[in-house]
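U., I forgot to send this yesterday:
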Amino acid sequence: MPIDLIIILILLILVVFIYRKFSSFIYSIVIIDLFFRIVDYVISRLPGMSELDNYLPDSIPGVMAKYTESTLYDILEWIYVGIYAIFLGYIIVYFIHKRK
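Result:
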């Protein structure tokens, strides 16, 4: 099993067992994805860090594209978009309640 998939699965399993809430699962997926995107950006901008690019994925959709094909990838991509839509809903509700 590749290291990028192992990292994602371990982090998600830890979150599910520790927090046991759906919102925590959504937040953890977004946090993991943002972390991978930031690390990918830093690795691409700093000289001498290119060897880390082989070990860390660029994002969660990058991992999905690497290990799935065609219809399964499309289904996972739409689930991913749904997760980000739910996350956006959580953020909007938070800002509406914060303002009151």
